[in-house]
Write a structure and sequence with these properties.
Radius of gyration: 24 Å
Shape: globular
CATH superfamily of the largest domain: Glycosidases
CATH architecture of the largest domain: Alpha-Beta Barrel
Number of domains: 2
CATH topology of the largest domain: TIM Barrel
C-alpha cells in the first residue's frame, strides 16, 4: 500500500506541471505572448513548402525579378520593384494588350477555375520531397479568400472568395485535409492588410474589428492549422492591428491554443523581436537568432507562378540543397515556395526540384531532421569572408549566392568547406563537393570510440588526429557507389563528439 501511495504521489508530481502549462493564461502583451514556446516539431522539421496561389495565378506574368503575386498593385499603382530597373508600365502594358483596357483585376477571379486541383496529389509530391510541413496562402494582399468566408465578400460588394466565384470550391479545406491525411503539418498564410480594401484604405478601425479579427478567427476555427504565417503588417503598429489581443485569443481560447505555431509578422517593425519563429525572405546573411527561424524563397524569384521566368531563373537542385544545408547549420528551416498554375497543376520543373531534394534527403536526412546548431556552423577556407549579397538595383538575394560561398570560389574570397549540424553526441559535416583523397575537419574533439561514416555508402572511414584537427582518409571516388542526387553535397557522420 505504501509503495502504491508513493507511485500515485509521484504521478501527481509529474502530471501537475503539464496541467499548469496547458492552463497558463496569456495576456495581450509581448512579455506574456513571447513566453509561449515554439513547438518542437517546427524546429525539428527543417524543410517545408510554401504555396502562393490565387487570382494572380491566371495572368501569371510579371517582369523578371519581381513578385508575380503582386500583380494587382503593380497594375493599379503603375509601379514595380524587385531585381532590375523598371518603368512601372510593364504590368499595365501587358494587361491592356492581353486582356483589354476594360478588364479589371477582380475579373481574374471568374477566370480562375482550378480545374486540375488535386491536393492529394500535391501531398504525394510534398511527401516525396522530404518536406515536413506545407503552408498555403489562405488570403494574400489582394484579399481574395480561398475558403467560403463571408467577410471577404460582404465588405466589398463583389464576390471575393473561392466558393462563390472562380473555382467554386473550398480550396483551403481540401488542402488542410489532404496534408494532414498524408502526415504533413498544414499551415496557412494570412495577410493582415489588403491593398485596396475600402475600409483599410480609409484607415477605419472596423477593418480590424469587423473584418481582420473575425475573418482570422473564422479561418482558425474552421481549419485548425498547425502553423499560421502572418504577413502584411508593415504599415501599422498595434494601436491599429490589435494583434496582441488576437494572439491572446489564439493562445487561450482557440481550438489550436495548445499546439499552433506562429511567426513574427504581426506588428510594424517587430520582426525578429516578437511572436513565434523568426522569418527571413531572400535576405541571406549569417544570423544568430535566439528563437527558431525560417527562410522563405521561391524556386525562381517570384512566389506566384511567373510564366515569364525561364530555366536560368530557377534555382538548381544543387543550389537548393546547399541552401538547405547552410540554413540548417545556422539552426533554421528552409521553406521553399511552389507556385501552382491557375489550373492547379504544380509546374513540372517545380515537381522535379522537389523530387531531387527528396532523393538527397532520403540518403542524408539524418544530418538535417531534428538537428541543432553545433558550436560553429561552418568550416571556412582561408580568405575574405565578407560577401556582397545584393548587387546594385537588387531587392532580393538570388540563389547563386550559395554557389559563390561554396563551389564557385571568387578571387580572394573564402568558401564554406563544410556545414555542421548536431544531433545528441553526433556531429554531421556536410561537404559541398567531394573533398578528394582526404577530408580535414578542423578543431573537433573525438572520443575513443568515435566512428566517421559516409552516409551515402554507409562506409566507416579511417582517420587520424593531428593536433586539434582530424584527417579522414577517403576511398577512391567511385561514381557507381552514389545516386546522382548525392553529388550535390556529401555528408560525413562523426559519432561521439566531445
Amino acid at each position: 500500500m505504501r509503495t502504491r501511495l508513493l507511485l500515485i504521489a509521484l504521478a501527481i508530481t509529474v502530471y501537475q506541471p503539464l496541467v499548469n502549462a496547458q492552463e497558463k493564461t496569456y495576456t495581450a502583451d509581448w512579455k506574456s505572448l513571447d513566453s509561449r514556446p515554439v513547438a518542437d516539431w517546427f524546429s525539428d522539421a527543417k524543410f517545408g513548402i510554401f504555396i502562393h496561389w490565387g487570382p494572380y495565378s491566371v495572368p501569371s506574368w510579371s517582369p523578371k525579378g519581381t513578385y508575380e503575386e503582386w500583380y494587382q498593385t503593380w497594375f493599379q499603382s503603375e509601379s514595380v520593384f524587385g531585381n532590375g530597373k523598371f518603368t512601372g508600365q510593364e504590368i499595365p502594358d501587358f494587361h491592356k494588350s492581353t486582356y483589354g483596357a476594360d478588364f479589371n483585376y477582380i475579373d481574374f477571379a471568374k477566370l480562375w477555375k482550378a480545374e486540375l486541383y488535386n491536393p492529394v496529389k500535391w501531398a504525394e509530391i510534398f511527401k516525396k520531397s522530404g518536406a515536413k510541413y506545407v503552408v498555403m496562402t489562405s488570403k494574400h494582399h489582394d484579399g481574395f479568400a480561398l475558403w467560403p468566408n463571408e467577410h471577404a465578400t460582404k465588405s466589398r460588394g463583389h464576390l471575393w472568395n473561392s466558393v462563390v466565384t472562380g473555382p467554386k470550391r473550398d480550396l483551403v479545406g481540401d488542402f488542410v485535409t489532404a496534408m494532414k491525411d498524408a502526415g504533413l503539418k498544414a499551415g496557412l498564410y494570412y495577410s493582415l492588410y489588403e491593398w485596396y480594401h475600402p475600409w483599410y484604405q480609409a484607415g477605419l478601425d472596423k477593418f480590424v474589428t469587423d473584418y481582420y479579427h473575425p475573418q482570422f478567427k473564422d479561418l482558425v476555427d474552421n481549419y485548425e492549422p498547425d502553423l499560421i504565417y502572418a504577413d502584411g503588417e508593415w504599415e501599422k503598429d498595434d494601436s491599429y492591428w490589435r494583434s496582441k489581443e488576437l494572439l491572446a485569443w489564439l493562445f487561450n481560447d482557440s481550438k489550436v491554443k495548445d499546439d499552433v505555431v506562429i511567426n513574427d509578422r504581426w506588428v510594424k517593425g517587430q520582426r525578429h523581436k516578437h511572436g513565434g519563429f523568426y522569418t527571413t525572405e531572400y535576405l541571406r546573411e549569417e544570423v544568430n537568432f535566439d528563437k527558431p527561424w525560417e527562410e522563405i524563397r521561391g524556386m525562381g524569384l517570384s512566389f506566384g507562378y511567373n510564366r515569364n521566368e525561364d530555366i536560368e531563373d530557377y534555382n538548381s537542385p544543387q543550389m537548393l540543397i546547399l541552401m538547405l544545408s547552410d540554413i540548417v547549420s545556422q539552426g533554421g528551416n528552409l521553406c521553399i515556395n511552389v507556385g501552382p498554375a491557375a489550373d492547379g497543376k504544380i509546374p513540372v520543373i517545380m515537381q522535379e526540384r522537389l523530387l531531387q531534394i527528396g532523393k538527397w534527403l532520403a540518403t542524408n536526412g539524418d544530418a538535417i531532421y531534428g538537428t541543432k546548431k553545433w558550436k560553429r556552423s561552418y568550416q571556412w577556407s582561408p580568405g575574405d569572408r565578407n560577401f556582397q549579397l545584393l548587387e546594385e538595383g537588387q531587392s532580393y538575394v538570388e540563389g547563386d549566392y550559395i554557389l559563390k560561398q561554396t563551389v564557385w570560389q571568387q578571387p580572394g574570397k573564402a568558401v564554406k568547406e563544410l556545414f555542421f549540424t548536431k544531433k545528441d553526441n553526433d556531429v554531421y559535416a556536410i561537404s559541398p563537393k567531394w573533398p578528394g583523397k582526404e577530408l580535414v575537419i578542423k578543431d573537433v574533439k573525438l572520443k575513443t570510440d568515435t566512428k566517421i561514416t559516409l552516409l551515402a555508402t554507409g562506409e566507416n572511414l579511417a582517420y587520424q588526429k593531428q593536433g586539434k584537427d582530424v584527417i579522414v582518409t577517403l576511398p577512391e571516388f567511385n561514381p557507381n557507389n552514389f545516386q546522382p542526387e548525392d553529388y550535390y553535397a556529401f555528408v560525413f557522420k562523426i559519432s561521439q563528439v566531445n
